[in-house]
Amino acid sequence: MAFMNCLKMTRRTYGSAVRTESLPSAVMCGGEKPAGVLTSQGEVWFPSSKGPVRVSIGPPLPPKPAPVVIDQVIADGLQIPASPTVFLGPDNAKLEIHYGVVLLRSQERIRFRYMLENFDKNWSEAAPSRVAFYTNVPPGRYHFRVVAFQMSNPELVASSSLEIVQAPHFYRTSWFLACVVVLLAACVWGSYQLRVRQIRVRFRAVLSERNRLAREMHDTLIQGCASVSALLEAHSSMEQSNSGYHTDLLDCARTQLRSTLEEAREAVWGLRSISDTSTDIGEMLKKIAEQFIREFGVTVDCSISGEPFALSQSAVHETVMIAREGLYNAIRHAQPSRIELRVNFEPDRCTLKIVDDGSGFDVRVLTQAPERHYGLLGMRERVERVRGRFILDSTIGKGTEITVEIPRRAVASAASEITI
User: Which pairs count as long-range contacts for 197-205, CB under 8 Å and 24+ apart, including other chains?
Assistant: First the structure.
């Protein structure tokens, strides 16, 4: 009794008023028995079902906040292991984040706030369920933060965080958008190039028609007028007593003028029907030779050799025009006494040769000023239209030789070209 009195035991009875959460049942003894003993050394002894429990009393510890933990993450009903970074699929619609604190006593006065950075504008006060719900989170990278504090000490805060990466659908990814931009740029560029190509094609068509008209006018109207002029000069130079020759020359001039006008009209309006109908090129060349003999008094020998094959009307037309221009240039510039007009048919080509014994010229002059020799330029363009080859050989004092080779395989393709 003396020992107990010296300890100055005070008997007190405590009721159990503590609500436990996730704690084992209390093993301390209470009720009718003494709740404990305080010794002079400052120790407290408590009786328990497993023996006396000693509690040493030391200096008070500074208060520490209870640690906050994120228990689990659930996306569309599927639990995702909680890790520092959580990756969500592009089809995720609902997100649940469960959190709590580690505290071995009552948590009734613990309060929570949370925020999903880059999504929430303000902090959200947590519900008692301690679950954060989110729906339809846009693709991106987010930082989830949750803080806990006691109502008695709101400045003492504990927090926890979690990185959340919401993957986008493929059509919202940067590489897909880049591909779309590149595709749109390619479409715009392709449309621009197509438009430029169309304009160029139209321009080439207009330029081709312009060149065609220039060639036709040069080879028909100009040459026809030159022939009429030569006939009229011959008429004026003859004596008045030769009335019969006067009449013949005037008739020839009249016929040539009508023919020239008709050819010019056809050239302007493009009335020639380009088809696969074959034409006798030998007969046409012979008529041209006779015309030049009659009008200019120059000997023109026309010969056809080889086994003739069918030529399209367009190929015949271009060949005849080349022959006419070659004869006219020879008579006008070379003053020849004899011109040979030869056509040779080979199995794979048709070759036209115009050879004169005139004065000839230096071929190098053509490269210095090709625009001044429109007749030769027109002949080259006509050869190109039938996909042939043009060869010019001339020597001063020895005459000129013009060779035109038309491949047989090019006849069909040339026939399909319609003069506009």
Answer: 205/420
